[in-house]
Amino acid sequence: MAEFSINNDSHSSPHPDYAEIVVVRHGETAWNASAKIQGHLDVELNETGRQQAAAVGDRLSREPKVSVIYSSDLQRAFETAQIIASKCGGIEVVKDSDLRERHLGDLQGHVFHEIAKTNPTAYKAFVSKNEDQEIPGGGESLVQLFDRSTSALLRIGLKHKGERVLVVTHGGFIRALYKWARPNGRPAGNVLNTCISVFHLYGEDKWTLKVWGDVSHLSETGFLQSGFGGDRTSGSAIVSHLR
């Protein structure tokens, strides 16, 4: 049986008994700002997103050293990871397609507030309470996203026991990790652009969530509100509020 805890107080130094995995959502894109659904479509950061990435990179550079950065291979995550790496002394960035956002099928590329009318079949699948429901057009179900997300984090954590590693990924992916760590907990809330969450992974049957959704690095930059705007297009975020 897995063990869970949560503590938003602080980041800690690496410990030989576990991997400390720092999970960061990518910076803002123009599609985030305009409520356009991205999924697996490859959209680059906008200027706000680049400055958000620089802010989280500055923060991480002052914390215990990260040994390696794993990133989704989609541009918005990989560019965020590269900016962070440059702030932290040129750490290696490893692309990993398993860290991608949820595939949202026929909804990808459409503005969220229009999809109930323009794509009613896909929209119905998207808001379904059946977590095995796939989205037409090759989209993943919530169960498929959950399995991919948790398997990827376990794989990385078991490889880097005793180290502090960074994972740069997407809102839906991060929400799946929250559900994994807090299956009976309160709703996840907003998953903002460049928010930080920290997991301690001891093994397949024990992991703890130590920090959730921290964006204190944005509080004095002027980009916190943009982070909230971007969150509205996180696919799983919308599902969690509607279900």
Automatic annotation (TrEMBL):
GO terms for molecular function: phosphatase activity. One of its GO terms (cellular component) is cytosol. Belongs to the phosphoglycerate mutase family. InterPro entries: His_Pase_superF_clade-1, His_PPase_superfam, PG/BPGM_mutase_AS, PGM_Phosphatase. Gene3D superfamilies: Phosphoglycerate mutase-like. The active site is at 26 (tele-phosphohistidine intermediate), 101 (proton donor/acceptor). This is Phosphoglycerate mutase. Substrate binds at residues 25-32, 76. It holds the Pfam family His_Phos_1. Transmembrane segments: none annotated.
